[in-house]
Amino acid sequence: MLTTQTRLPPSPPAPRSWQTLNWLVRPYPYLDACHQRFGRVFTLRLHAFGDLVMLSDPDNVADLFRMSPDDARPGEANELITPVVGSESLFVLDGEPHARRRAELRSSITTRPPIDPDVVSSLTLAELPSGGGEVAANTLFRWLAMRLIGYQLFGTASPDVLRPLAEQLHWLLGPLGSTAAFFPPLQRNLGPASFGYWFHRRIEAANAALADAVRQATALAAAPSTVERLCRGRGGGSADRLEGTLRDDVVTMIVAGDDAMASAMSWTLFWIARTPRVQERLLNSLPPGATPEQILDNDYLTAACQEALRITPVVDMVARTTTVPVSVAGFDIPVGSLLSAAIYLVHRNESIYPDAASYRPERFLDRSYRPSEFIPFGGGLRRCLGANLALFELRLVIGTILANYQVAPANPEAGELRYARRNVTVAPADPLLARLIPRRR
Fold this sequence. Notes:
CATH 1.10.630.10
């Protein structure tokens, strides 16, 4: 409903910098506190975003996802990540340019199966200690996710090719890079003594590492890669010349498929390790040494992965910038505000998910959810292109681990959830330690 008046929902009285800092360092507890104080609709005032109206009611979220992309622009809302992903990234495009680029990427990444299941299982096992023991799950999964996205994009999972790229990207997407992304003044290059100088040097180093990885991978790949398919779809050209729109497309797919996947794997292992009854049911349904086919056929494993994406979503919200005044839940939202589907709060709605703070995979076996109720991959026209691939990989990686190991927290007394923001994603804080106990075949 259009309106001529403007009135934003209530907001915490703290200064913008304090709200931004809280949202960065304690993202989900801060959203919980605001929700308890202000209800289903409230406003956060954040650097780099402006006024961010958070929606936690699925009906409001459904209305947002149905809005015309001309009236609610996701690309404009994502401009803060432009320094990393580039001005031609699918994340920051709107309108016809976005629709055209999305169609190109869909045709290049849509394969059946999304990735060879045997490759996912073999790469997973290669990164695990054969005799069991303690592992740093976050570190393990960040590297494994990089090898998987390298295989998918470049046609190779070679550590020699991917390790330098991983080191550069993980700094950019980590806590320091995220701080610069959400506090734009820190991006100003005022010389070697400024944070902005080193931030942009890191971006240049990541671009160089990416170009080197593509050149080496082109020589090693045994089969056509996603990058080569993109080149062919755009009239030819060499995949080893990574520049312009091709560079931005590749970075976009890495950002979406690397750090987000690593966080999803970490959260899923976190919940399974700390919920014995869930792990017992999974181990009983997965024979030791289960094949990829057996893993993918396991409905309870699928539900366990979906429940992890619900209770601790990797992305806490998706936003749209309004170009027309709109009315939401009795509030009149002015042009230029950001409307955000607060994924975490939608997933914690007790009327949809009873006992929402508990990890209960059974809820995904008992019923299905509307596209505005379960939204770990966003929704509407901007739903993540790689959603099917992500769930496919997540099931295979976690299933392969459980087919070979029991999993327990390495420090059982440290059961409290601790969060770390990694740019637009939310991961468990380091170190996330797990103990792997080999299963007898």
